[in-house]
Write a structure and sequence with these properties.
It is a single chain. Helix 1 runs antiparallel to helix 12, helix 2 runs parallel beside helix 6 and helix 2 crosses helix 7. It is built from 13 helices and 19 strands. It is an alpha+beta fold. About 25% of the residues lie in helices and about 20% in strands. Strands 12-13-14-15-16-17-18-19 form an eight-stranded antiparallel β-sheet, with no helix packed on it. A seven-stranded antiparallel β-sheet has the order 2-1-11-10-9-8-7, with helices on both faces. It has a two-stranded antiparallel ribbon with strand order 3-6. The chain is globular and about 85 Å long.
């Protein structure tokens, strides 16, 4: 008997259930619900509850807090992809008069604009949004705490500004734009700005006694783009699949990859923790695995979305308590359990459908000075350059259509690569952002900067 690759093995399912059971019990959460995504679809749902009877499932709404920011970031990047703005634009160019207009859109997305973390006045998460009807009420008299672009400083008001930017350029409310451009195309029918039945109630659990207090459920008003949404594990699982692979109806794969790319300077503590931030997405290294996603919290609720693109596994964890279970750790553990117990089965190797002989001629070993690299052909006419031993500068390159390539990552990101040919058409060397790569170490027949000693290689004697 064989098991479908879409199903998880019984041992894996039990390990997942055990992990969330421990989290709910030790974290003293009234309820906790989770889902695992593999190959673009939810393959496991589980829940634990303190209430006798049927526990919550993938159709029950919980508040997802700051995961809302990732939805807002998607809306902003749609505007960029349509050519309506550039990430380097200042906010003032498109939304004048806020008092924070010197910040760029990219800085707002990456929390590097230098804005305060919170809105002035009463705790905005536990007070009605009507107390902050205007952007000036959200920002206060001193919106900036740090020089723009210098450091990562998480800012809820920053995402309020991004939501207002969306409204200005679309001529509609943030909520309406989100529904029309993201929720409906992705089929997120159970995601909404206000709770819809069935939904969990939010609770505060006493830190020193097993008793609870109901938390207020406030409409965040202007702050909605920073944390308003309610959703289910079923819907957030679909959103996870989109953030891993893209969907041309919303954002192409290249743009969601950009969201997952670190965009903020890391603090010293962040370097130690292996954590940074992209464009609306958190990025971290954990147990040797690169994880992306976002966490969320509002009084009465905790949420976490964790994705390992390399393993093609994602996890969603939601709970209805103000504090308690560490959902970031739970999400990372759920991903790890599946990735280690049932490693991703690679696609079959297939030859390229066609190959350019002039590019094939470049494949093989090249030397930058004495360091050996290998150039390999990739799909769609691209190439990759990797050190043959140890660590070193490596990158993939996309084809430009004129016989050159542009680096996509690492040290060579954005750098031009071209093959320099002799008058007879033979390849002399590769030029990569002024670096000369030759077929032999310090090839005397190539224009090696500084020249090559005419006596050549020698021993000590």
């Amino acid at each position: 008997m064989t098991t479908s690759q879409e199903e998880l093995l019984p041992g894996t399912r039990r390990a997942l259930l055990h992990r969330i059971a421990v989290a709910q019990a030790e974290g003293r959460a009234p309820s906790l619900v989770a889902a695992v995504v593999r190959d673009g679809r939810a393959v496991w749902h589980g829940s634990r509850t303190s209430v006798e009877g049927h526990g919550p499932d993938e159709t029950v709404q919980y508040r997802i807090g700051s995961i809302t920011k990732t939805f807002t970031a998607v809306l902003v990047l749609r505007l960029r992809d349509e050519g309506l703005l550039d990430l380097g634009d200042t906010l003032e160019k498109h939304l004048p008069g806020t008092g924070a207009g010197e910040a760029t859109i990219a800085e707002l997305l990456a929390h590097t604009a230098g804005l305060a973390a919170e809105s002035p006045g009463p705790w905005w998460e536990r007070s009605p949004g009507s107390l902050r009807p205007e952007l000036t009420d959200v920002l206060g008299e001193q919106p900036f705490l740090h020089p723009a672009g210098r450091r990562f400083h998480y800012s809820n008001p920053g995402y309020t500004l991004l939501g207002a930017l969306v409204e200005k350029l679309r001529g509609a409310s943030w909520e309406d734009v989100l529904r029309r451009e993201v929720l409906e195309p992705l089929g997120l029918d159970s995601t909404s700005a206000r709770p819809r039945a069935p939904h969990a109630g939010g609770w505060a659990v006493h830190p020193w006694a097993d008793v609870m207090l109901p938390e207020p459920t406030e409409d965040l008003g202007r702050m909605a783009p920073a944390g308003q949404l309610w959703s289910t594990t079923g819907d957030v699982a679909k959103f996870a699949a989109f953030l891993a692979k893209g969907d041309d109806r919303v954002l192409r794969a290249e743009t969601v990859r950009e969201m997952r790319t670190p965009a903020a300077p890391a603090e010293a503590a962040d370097v130690v923790d292996g954590a940074t931030y992209g464009l609306g997405m958190q990025v971290q290294s954990r147990d040797g695995r690169l994880l992306v996603g976002h966490s969320g919290s509002l009084p009465g609720f905790l949420a976490n979305l964790t994705i390992s693109v390399a393993d093609d596994v994602a996890a969603v964890v939601l709970a209805n308590c103000t504090s308690g279970p560490l959902l970031g750790s739970v999400g990372a553990d759920l991903v790890r359990i599946v990735a280690e117990a049932e490693p991703r089965i690679p696609e079959p190797w297939r030859p390229l459908p066609e190959v350019d002989a002039a590019v094939l001629e470049l494949a093989g070993p090249w030397y930058w000075g004495t360091q050996a690299f290998a150039l390999r052909l990739t799909t769609e006419g691209g190439v990759s350059l990797d050190p043959l031993s140890g660590s070193g500068r490596r990158s993939r390159f996309r084809k430009n259509g004129d016989g050159t390539w542009t680096g996509l990552e690492g040290y060579f990101a954005g750098e031009p690569l071209r093959a320099v040919r002799r008058p007879d058409g033979s390849v002399s060397h590769l030029d990569l952002g002024s670096f000369v790569f030759t077929r032999q170490p310090y090839d005397e027949g190539a224009p090696v900067p500084g020249g090559v000693d005419p006596e050549g290689w020698r021993g000590i004697g």
